[in-house]
Write a structure and sequence with these properties.
There is one protein chain. This protein has 256 residues and is of the alpha/beta class. It folds into two domains: 1-127, Rossmann fold, CATH 3.40.50.1110; 138-256, Cobalt-precorrin-4 Transmethylase, domain 1, CATH 3.40.1010. 39% of the residues lie in helices and 9% in strands. The chain has nine helices and seven strands; from the N terminus they run H-E-H-E-H-H-H-H-E-H-E-H-E-E-H-E. The protein has helices at residues 10-31, 54-74, 84-89, 107-121, 146-151, 154-163, 177-186, 206-209, 232-238; strands at residues 36-38, 79-81, 171-174, 195-198, 213-214, 226-229, 248-251. It has a five-stranded parallel beta sheet with strand order 5-4-3-6-7. The protein has a two-stranded parallel sheet with strand order 1-2. Helix 9 links the parallel strand 6 (226-229) and strand 7. Helix 1 (10-31) runs parallel beside helix 2. The N and C termini lie far apart (42 Å).
């Protein structure tokens, strides 16, 4: 985890974070073949030496750190981003994660974040625990936008994802843009132990934001895995005329 305290001038954060990341990377690579996973802490500052409100200092500090981390990850194929910051700050109700002091997390929220980390990055031999989330407020913002509901069947997607919990096959998503984000954000697909990642690199770097691996669809043709298609055109073009494929193709669209 990279944690930068706002104890010096904002110029320090802007100029020192990127070189610090590079130095950490170089030291690790000099001694290990390990890949790196970086996250930005969701815990806000409660004090600042800057001559303005701590909330302003916190926002600026996080923005500068986040920017440095994002630019660094874009240059390294063996560096990944774990979205603990987004899990907390992007939650439908932040109080689901935060205690009343606004600076510490509930124990169950910590377990939820750590379990997501395990499912995203740890070997399958590492024990998984139940990712029950009755405490987590369900997203409602997307339902206010008819275009999203019309373009993506959230109810059917949730039903399908829940039905996969007993499946042993590997599971991949073929799709980009907001449809992929809708599937990831509004279902528990990432919590499935068999979920492997994407089969197409997203132009908006969704795979970087969510720490997903990307596997070429052609490499899955001889594997008994499941690939979820989010666009009917992609499904028609890549699946229907491929008689030799062994993977199972699922189409999730509003006009299915």
């Amino acid at each position: 985890m990279i944690r930068v305290c706002y104890l010096k001038s904002k110029a320090y954060i802007e100029t020192a974070t990127a070189p610090d990341l590079q130095e950490i990377y170089s030291l690790i690579k000099a001694h290990l073949k390990a890949e790196l996973i970086i996250t930005v802490s969701p815990i806000p500052l409660n004090q600042t030496f800057m001559p303005y409100d701590v909330r302003i200092a916190n926002t600026e500090s996080k923005a500068r750190v986040y920017s440095a981390v994002s630019e660094f990850i874009e240059t390294k194929s063996d560096v990944h981003y774990f979205p603990s910051y987004e899990m907390v700050t992007g939650a439908e109700c932040k109080d689901d994660f935060m205690l009343k002091d606004g600076r510490h997390l509930h124990r169950y929220a910590l377990r939820y974040i750590l379990e997501n980390f395990v499912r995203m990055y740890c070997d399958s031999s590492v024990e998984r625990t139940d990712l029950a989330t009755p405490w987590l407020t369900a997203p409602t913002k997307s339902s206010e936008n008819p275009a999203l509901v019309e373009g993506f069947p959230l109810v059917r997607a949730n039903q399908w994802v829940n039905a996969q919990k007993e499946s042993a096959e590997g599971l991949y998503i073929y799709g980009t843009g907001y449809l992929t984000q809708e599937l990831i954000y509004n279902t528990e697909i990432m919590a499935l132990p068999q979920f492997r990642g994407l089969t197409i690199q997203d132009t908006n770097s969704i795979e970087k934001v969510y720490g997903l691996s990307v596997v070429d669809l052609a490499k899955l043709r001889d594997q008994t895995v499941t690939v979820v298609f989010l666009e009917k055109d992609d499904y028609m073009r890549l699946v229907q005329n491929d008689k030799e494929k062994k993977y199972t193709a699922i189409l999730l669209t509003a006009d299915e």
